[in-house]
Specification:
five-stranded antiparallel sheet, OB fold (Dihydrolipoamide Acetyltransferase, E2P), SH3 type barrels, flat, 3 domains
Length: 187
C-alpha cells in the first residue's frame, strides 16, 4: 500500500480492477480546501488513457511490474515471437500488446513487461528511437522547396514515413517510434 505522496511517473497501480501506468501527475495545493493530485493514467491492458484526481493521502495499491530484455525473432499468424536473451525461452505476443509493432525488425532488443506476481505478459515496449535502413525513396528535385519539405520513404520494416528531401535509398536514419517521425541521418 502506498499513498499519493509516492506517485511518480511510470509507477504502475491497481485502479478500477485494471493495471494503470502513471503518465503525468501534478500535486496541487489550492489556497482554499485540501490538497490533491491530478494524474493521467494509461491502462496497460487496453492502452486507454484517463484523467483521475486523488485527494492528498489517498491510499493506492501499487503493482510490481518487471521489464525484461527480449529479442524480436519473427512474426507469423500466431503473433510476434520474442526470445529471452538470458534463458533463450521463447514467447508469443499479440500485436495489440506492442506499443509500435510497425517498427520492429529482426533481432531488435525490446522490453517485455511482466506482472511479477502472476508472471503474466502485460505488453512489449519498442525502444523510443530506432535506427532503420531506407529501402525506397523517391529522388528529390532540386529547387522545388522553400523550407522543411518532406517526402515518403519506405523503411526496412515495410512502413512508410515522412523524411526530408535529402534522404536517399540505402541510408540509415533514426526515427521516433512514438509518432514515426524522422530524427536524424546516421552515419
Amino acid at each position: 500500500m502506498a499513498t499519493t505522496a509516492d506517485i511518480k511517473k511510470g509507477l504502475v497501480i491497481e485502479f478500477n480492477n485494471d493495471l494503470y501506468s502513471i503518465v503525468e501527475f501534478q500535486h496541487v495545493k489550492p489556497g482554499k480546501g485540501p490538497a490533491f493530485v491530478r494524474t493521467k493514467l494509461k491502462s496497460i491492458t487496453t492502452g486507454k488513457v484517463l484523467d483521475n484526481t486523488f485527494s492528498a493521502g489517498h491510499k493506492i495499491t501499487t503493482a510490481r511490474v518487471e521489464r525484461r530484455p527480449y529479442q524480436f525473432l519473427y512474426k507469423d499468424d500466431v503473433g510476434y515471437h520474442f526470445m529471452d536473451t538470458s534463458t533463450y525461452e521463447q514467447i508469443s505476443i499479440e500485436e495489440s500488446m506492442i506499443n509500435a509493432p510497425k517498427f520492429l525488425k529482426d533481432g531488435q532488443e525490446v522490453q517485455v513487461l511482466f506482472h511479477a506476481e502472476e508472471e503474466k505478459v502485460l505488453g512489449c515496449e519498442v525502444p523510443q528511437h530506432v535506427v532503420v535502413k531506407v529501402t525506397y525513396s523517391e529522388p528529390a528535385v532540386k529547387g522545388n522547396t522553400s523550407t522543411n519539405a518532406t517526402k515518403n520513404a519506405e523503411i526496412e520494416t515495410g512502413t512508410t514515413i515522412q523524411v526530408p528531401l535529402f534522404i536517399e535509398q540505402d541510408e540509415l536514419i533514426k526515427i521516433n517510434t512514438e509518432d514515426g517521425s524522422y530524427i536524424e541521418r546516421v552515419k
